[in-house]
Design a protein that fits this description.
The protein contains 11 helices and 16 strands. It has 420 residues and is of the alpha/beta class. The chain binds 2-acetamido-2-deoxy-beta-D-glucopyranose (NAG) and zinc ion (2 copies).
Length: 420
């Protein structure tokens, strides 16, 4: 009987935490955020229906600025072309930053629902619409508490996370000036709504792309001895690349190399004069990625030379700067975990799983300590179970107010603990 009674009391209490372990301050912030749910949902749906690609987020940026105007929060614009930097608090140190990315993806949304993307071939499939909305929510809550803040919170609405180094551009434009710590969330469809996941140290991978051209001498397929066959050289180069991870990399240090295309030749009776191929490589550490890249180049050039061909390897740095690895600061990670437990309950703070994806938040962490943590959106009832970048990606909008509340409490409590 007693056990059943306890279970019932537990179920009756807030779904997010047990009565005993939760903290009044964190609960107050969460309930303030939940009162903003309708507003947050409407902002997010507006952004969701009009996804814009890297550095073209003009309407998204205008929408965010109009909400900041309504809230009376000062900001700087443009930063990094379409980005916005708002600031709340005392204006003096400590200064911390919270970053939200705002760009969508070149992807056709395949979810049929009322607020589906209105733009063909573009979709907010990585949850950046939710990130931007959560940060706006935090802007509103922090602004209500601005006289209590023991320092300054800088809100970074960053363009172009998806492969276009928006974070680098923000840093070049000076957004980290005097900032001592930076926080960000990313939605996560493997973690339940109402939970978060974080990890100290390496989290997401360093990565880069490559393209190679192997040049031989083309000719009639009936006279291979009169040609220098670049297709054979390419085949052996690609096979040789597969040995890199298995034979040269510490098995405890994750690295991935994927060749994703090969193009060469058009005819069935002609040996082409050259072949192009390319792909991506990722490493748990930034140094590992640079070493890996060097070996990739040597192997392609070496294999080409064995087969009397020439090779040219291009890392396309102009279009795609290599991403450093996201490496979370241990103390900031512990801070996030602590705030997560206070707000969501100890059972809802998990260890994040490392992933070989890239995230340009890493650029900020090259300059100052930061933590990127995952915010759960998984909810079978609403169908939010698909991974980011899937055309079926769907958001549990309950996560919006939780994200806004977490940003607020993470920032305010950090300032309380670090003010001089
Ligand atoms: C941006 O807003 C303008 C004016 O409302 C509209 O004409 C345009 O289609 C919008 N662009 C996108 C990408 O939503
Ligand atoms: Zn993405
Ligand atoms: Zn993303």
């Amino acid at each position: 009987m007693a056990a059943i009674h306890v279970v019932i009391v537990f179920l009756l209490c807030t779904s997010l935490c047990t009565v005993v372990k939760c903290d009044a301050y964190a609960q107050e912030i969460l309930s303030s955020a939940q009162k903003e749910k309708d507003w947050l949902v409407s902002v997010r749906r507006e952004i969701h229906q009009h996804p814009e690609l890297a550095f073209q987020e003009h309407n998204t940026s205008a929408l965010i600025r109009s909400e900041l105007d309504k809230l009376g929060i000062p900001y700087t614009y443009p930063v990094a072309k379409t980005g916005i930097v708002a600031q709340i608090g005392s204006g003096s140190s400590p200064i911390i930053a919270i970053r939200a990315d705002i760009d969508g993806l070149p992807l056709q949304e395949l979810v049929e629902w009322e607020y589906k993307s209105k733009i063909d071939g573009r979709m907010h499939a990585c949850g950046h619409d939710a990130h931007a909305t959560m940060l706006l929510g935090a802007a509103k809550l922090l602004n209500q508490r601005k006289d209590k803040l023991k320092g300054t919170v800088r809100l970074l609405f960053q363009p172009a996370e998806e492969g276009a180094r928006g974070a680098s551009q923000m840093i070049k434009d000076g957004v980290l000036q005097d900032v001592e710590a930076i926080f960000a969330v990313h939605i996560d469809a493997t973690t339940s709504t109402g939970a978060i996941a974080s990890i100290p140290g390496p989290f997401t991978a360093a990565g880069c792309i490559f393209e190679a051209k192997i040049e031989g001498v083309g000719g009639h397929a009936a006279f291979p001895h009169q040609t220098v066959d670049p297709l054979l050289a390419t085949s052996l180069a690609i096979l040789a690349l597969q040995q890199l991870v298995s034979r040269e990399i510490d098995p405890l240090h994750s690295q991935v190399l994927s060749v994703t295309y090969i193009k060469g030749g058009d005819a069935l009776n002609v040996i082409p004069s050259y072949v192009k191929f390319g792909g991506t490589l990722r490493s748990q550490t930034t140094e590992g990625m640079y070493h890996f890249r060097q070996r990739l180049k040597e192997i392609i050039e070496g294999q080409a030379s064995v087969h009397r061909c020439n090779a040219y390897v291009d890392f396309k740095e102009e279009a795609f700067t290599p991403y450093p690895a996201v490496v979370n600061d241990k103390d900031l990670h512990l801070h996030v975990e602590r705030v997560g437990r206070l707000m969501l309950g100890p059972d809802n703070v998990h260890e994040a799983k490392k992933a070989m994806v890239g995230e340009d938040f890493a650029f900020y962490q090259e300059v100052i300590p930061g933590v990127l943590f995952s915010i759960g959106i998984r909810n079978k009832k609403v169908g939010s179970i698909h991974s980011p970048h899937s055309p079926f990606f769907f958001l549990d909008e309950e996560a919006l107010s939780i994200g806004a509340a977490l940003h607020t409490a993470v920032a305010e409590l950090y300032l309380n603990e670090h003010s001089i």
